[in-house]
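Re-run requested by the PI after the first attempt was lost when the workstation crashed. Everything re-entered from the original request form. Ligand of interest: histidyl-adenosine monophosphate.
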Amino acid sequence: MKFLAPRGTKDILPKEASFYQELEQASRQIFFNYNYKEFRTPIFEDIKLFQRTLGQTTDVVQKQLLTLKNEGEDEFALRPEATASIVRAYIEHDLHLKEGFSKYFYVGPMFRGERPQKGRLREFHHIGAEAIGSLNPYLDAEMISLAVKLIESFGIEGYTLNINNLGCSKDKENWSKLLRAALKDKIDNFCGLCQDRFQRNVFRILDCKNEVCKEALKKISLKENHICSSCQDHFATVQEALKNLKINFKVSPFLVRGLDYYTRTVFEITHGSLGSQDALGAGGRYDNLISQLGGPDLSAVGFALGVERMFLANKKIKETKDSINAYFITLDKEASKKGFLLLNNLRNENISCDMNYEEASLKSQMRSANKSGAKFVVIIGEDELKNDSVTLKDMSSGNQEKIKTNQLLNELKNKL
Ligand code: HAM
């Protein structure tokens, strides 16, 4: 029986792993510039953490948690996102006492048991950030500008940034009442899922992708403004700061998010090339989550970018070839013995090198050397063994010379 990777997951082969590394390295530098520190949390958590934070009625909790059960223990779930875990860890380690205002970033795999399709996987990767301990609107603007900066630094063009203001929890309550009242007589015009959402989570009707619902929504008008003046001021400052940073955005009154914890500013960055799963990344404020989980009353804001979707949106990412410094060609057993020892000496001096472990002809070993992309080839044959030397070939110029074995390290150091 041949085993295959589970549906919705994918093996990251070495060629592709270098894309991930590049993206991660570039992000780390940008996070450093904005003074965000890396946070690593477990891949799985108590399932109740996600049920409490993301919302019992959200799709992620209802349909997408991948669970783990161990006889006699609590039920766990693989993390579908990292915000809940970071808040849990922040409270567990009393970081509000130790650090006060904190800025974190994370990079890693997330898991959602969704029906796989283009841009929708069961294991995918987030690059994300969370800032805990401030309600300052400049922090919302910083988060948005940071997300945009990352996307641009990955060479992605033609994205759209949508922002919205959900208001504080009181505003959200008012809004859900207003929405229910406005939709009550018209709910039959919406899809079955939205009819269900009307009771469970009325906000989700606003961003239903079904064309029928989109049309029906155009006929709904909310006469009252549900956002209090303090939340309106907050959002005005966010917009002004974004304009000053010359970041283009659209205010989308129907942008709500698929997770329940959001308040005030929410945002989503989409890309036309992605099809129906068009969000490259998203985030927003969650000013009540920390206290809801038993922590102090602190505001927070964050976002996460989907790494696989960024690869889909950037057609320019090219295969990079990680090439080693030197490749050894050894022509008999005695030469292999000597070559194997020299490899070790060079590696200890941080010179990357390798050899062909099969005893093959010079021609076939040369082919392997070419394939490895090595900058230099070191040949050891009968002649070299006799004279305690090696032949060093520069693969870019094709020049080769015989040098004493004890000069190899210095020669390579000088030439690399
Ligand atoms: P989210 O919108 O659920 O937000 O996910 C963020 C991004 O992850 C999405 O925009 C998308 O690019 C990517 N993504 C989500 N699900 C999948 C999937 N099944 N396959 C591939 N990519 C996917 C969050 O997770 C929040 N924690 C963001 C946040 C942080 N809000 C505040 N702080």
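Saved to the shared folder this time. The chain has a mean pLDDT of 93.
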